[in-house]
């Protein structure tokens, strides 16, 4: 990108992104109830648990550690952290509300005042520095009671519980929050529904039936939230949030090209089509037929979905996916959570995630061409091992290089004509990894002294990337 020619829009929303279950800690304070993340152990076995069907949703301290329980203690240290975000010049800070801080079990009629008051304090602190909160309503922390008693989003009853929760927080924070999103990475449930839907399919035969029925209930719930937001906070913007990973055909073999096309339609566009267009896309009918999926769609469901379309599209972008119709075990990409085969043109992170900044430009162009709605990159970052030098510095130039290339790709997309609202780098402060529950997989501009074994002082330190990102924001993306 030639920075002398390309400008990010005036008022571009620079900032950082986090999730309640990965930073807050205080898992049993303030009358908070247990959620899915609270019972997921840290370590390499977490990913196997996320992908399996035998998890019992119980805390087992004899065999596992639970890093989310303390996380980085944002619950008590939010003022210190927000001051550091302000020092970097954040325009926005993306965070999520923990559903079980507001409704400990999820199905109560009346909310928990201690939880509501906590977020009041956080929002007030952000606003005192002129940082706009960007709030995700549900980010991988479904109430455990709803999982055990109702089967998670397999139950239609959960729609009304979510609606009650949403209405409470919209009314409470209507004067403090103007940017909202409904479900974090909603399409990610195609890979592992346990985090966002509260269940793992019991067998492969039921997998698609259960998952797409749960999607239907979430679409209704999301649309009801959109409608409520527009009624309660008319000047707010509310969007969906999808995990976007463009799918490349391994080669020009037409069989592989059509395979990649169909995989991309299903993973990247199905949920977005419903959120943005308010109806099920034509391509899904064949998929439902082939997988023998029959949805419980009641009178009025499709009207609700049609009436509750979003204002913008939030997306996470970490990697692309290269794929082919027939592949051997040896060809599969190791570490790429979205699957596929190894791309010979790309390098990978310490965790095997392929690094593809051009893929971000491709993603933004595809989304804007399809929908003509404002886009918001609300997650993007590099998980890496960081080392503290003898002088106390943390020279994470590898992270700067990664982010620079992705910001450049966004600039190219803007030059291409894409309407881009903003960019919030994922894990702007070190946090607990969602996929592995590790602290050693660090994303932040701010180092937190916390280790995988639970030791550490929780002291915050600025990395080199902290000072780099500050210049990026000051220059509105011109100084990279």
UniProtKB/TrEMBL annotation:
<dbReference type="InterPro" id="IPR033132">
    <property type="entry name" value="GH_1_N_CS"/>
</dbReference>
<keyword id="KW-0378">Hydrolase</keyword>
<dbReference type="GO" id="GO:0005829">
    <property type="term" value="C:cytosol"/>
</dbReference>
<dbReference type="GO" id="GO:0008422">
    <property type="term" value="F:beta-glucosidase activity"/>
</dbReference>
<dbReference type="InterPro" id="IPR018120">
    <property type="entry name" value="Glyco_hydro_1_AS"/>
</dbReference>
<dbReference type="GO" id="GO:0016052">
    <property type="term" value="P:carbohydrate catabolic process"/>
</dbReference>
<comment type="similarity">
    <text>Belongs to the glycosyl hydrolase 1 family.</text>
</comment>
<dbReference type="Pfam" id="PF00232">
    <property type="entry name" value="Glyco_hydro_1"/>
</dbReference>
<keyword id="KW-0326">Glycosidase</keyword>
<dbReference type="InterPro" id="IPR017853">
    <property type="entry name" value="GH"/>
</dbReference>
<dbReference type="InterPro" id="IPR001360">
    <property type="entry name" value="Glyco_hydro_1"/>
</dbReference>
<feature type="active site" description="Nucleophile">
    <location>
        <position position="379"/>
    </location>
</feature>
<protein>
    <submittedName>
        <fullName>Glycoside hydrolase family 1 protein</fullName>
    </submittedName>
</protein>
